[in-house]
Amino acid sequence: MLSPEFQVPSPASRAQLEIWDRQHVWHAFTQMAEYQPLMIERAEGCTLYDIDGNGYLDGVSSLWCNVHGHRHPRLDAAICGQIDRVAHVTNLGASNPTTIQLARRLTEIAPRGLNRVFFSSDGACAVEAAIKMALQYWRQRSDPRPEKTLYAAFDAAYHGDTLGSVSVSGVDRFQAIFKPLLFDVLRLPCPSLAQALSHSLGRLESTLAEQHAQIAALVVEPLIQCAAGMMTHPPGFLRGVRELCSKYNLLLIADEVATGFGRTGRMFACQHEDVAPDILCLGKGLTAGYLPMAATLTTDEVWRAFLGKYAESKTFCHGHTYGGNPLAAAVALASLDIFEQQHVLENLQPKIARLTEHLTRLAELPNVGGVRQCGFIAGIELVRDKATREPFPWAEQRGFAVCAVAKRHGVLLRPLGDVIVIMPPLAVTTEELDRICAAVEAGIGTLMAGLPSRTA
After folding, report:
1. Would you give the distance in Å from CA 336 to the centre of its chain?
2. What are the structural domains of the chain?
3. pLDDT category of residue 7 using cuts at 50, 70 and 90
4. Which residues have C-beta within 8 Å of that of residue 364, sequence separation ≥ 6?
5. How many CA atoms lie within 13 A of 385 on its CB side?
């Protein structure tokens, strides 16, 4: 019950909110000089509603994080139940039962051997922790290897926006201006479906054979590099990477911030090739898109390198105020219950097949240079010329133009340049999935209608 002196603020008008949005809110990855406000006021299931009451299917899971839909009663109840106990407990030298139970559950479902869980607030921070963890491990283990300070990562990789995670990323558009602040990384060529698996792994092995003594860890997005434009790896590549990391004695960091929690059709992408990394980074879907939380899981071997007396200074001196937050942990536990009790992964398989059907049709459109799919993740690449795969000039923002048409058809999407992303909540119905793909097709059709005939 509200205290007598508490006053509920009067709601601002739509016009006033638009003004304040432009004046005060600095939106991520958004050119604010061109920004047009889109204010989402509420949501239900897989539908978002703007301040005017217009409904839009959430075609990208609110930036790839929503899993079971919005306003799920089990998830809402989990937060309400936890807030009646405690909303926040510091993770620095203290804990709470909810977070402890979540850590246990994660170790039970993660790839084998990942028994230690370090909590943070978002995916970039999970990767940042992994990078620092790996460096400190090599310096503090029983037979130290302080020369291992180099990291290996792939072209066009994306691992986050903190300085460490940007350093191991490889999307030049996002990081070029920050290069003076970044550390050097051994950049590996992106594996290609067009090349033989043996060729991709052979190039990797030649690099590791030459420089493994200096490499602390290799960072990889398992199966698919999402922000690169949904670039899929050859089957067997991840398994080969694991074997090479073991052979040349470097840690394997698997960044499953985007691919974890069912996106690829399994709980984790690593499970498709029975791979257990040395460090696993999780985020986004961990709380089903409800609250900020991430986790970095690692092995007993890595963890033991940080044990010792206080005076030895082996402590992992890294952490954030909201790491292991009980509210986030409560909703994450409820999400895992839903996965198990409602057979989410089993029920997802027909939807994956339906998405494949749509992509097969969309691939035939004149301005589609290719489609890429990994489970319930899809990318549709727009090109000016199908025969030569000539791209559109980047500044023309053709991907955004297609998404603008999809919005008029009641579907919210956000492209990666000229790659249209389809990544709805796992809870989306088949009928809703059909509507999403139809809106994409309408957008591409509008794009084609305004172009000269240069397609094959």
Report:
1. 18
2. 14-71+345-449 (3.90.1150.10), 76-341 (3.40.640.10)
3. low
4. none
5. 6
Contacts of 299 (CB under 8 A, 6+ apart): 113, 114, 115, 116, 278, 279
Mean pLDDT for 431-436 is: 98
Which residues are bridge partners to 44 per DSSP?
A: 47
Residues in the chain: 456
CA triple 434-440-446, angle to 5 deg = 135
Query: Do residues 416 and 398 lie in contact, with contact meaning Cβ atoms separated by under 8 Å?
Result: no
Strand stretches in 45-145, DSSP E: 47-50, 55-58, 116-120
Q: Scan for tokens 């929690």, then name that residue.
A: 261
How far is Cα 42 from Cα 47, in angstroms, rounded to an integer? 9
Q: Report how far residue 16's alpha carbon sits from residue 20's, in angstroms, rounded to the nearest whole number.
A: 6
- Beta partners for residue 14, in sequence order: none
Contact predicate 59/422, CB 8 Å? yes
DSSP symbol at 194: T
Closest-CA residue to 380 (of 390, 393, 394, 368):
368
Q: 293, 124 in Cβ contact below 8 A?
A: no
138-185 residue pLDDT tens: 999 999 999 999 999 999 999 999 999 999 999 988 889 999 999 999
Pairing of strands 411-412, 55-58: parallel
Report which DSSP code applies to 189: P
Q: Which helix (H) or strand (E) holds 152?
A: strand 150-154
Give dist(CA 80, CA 404) in Å, integer.
Answer: 36
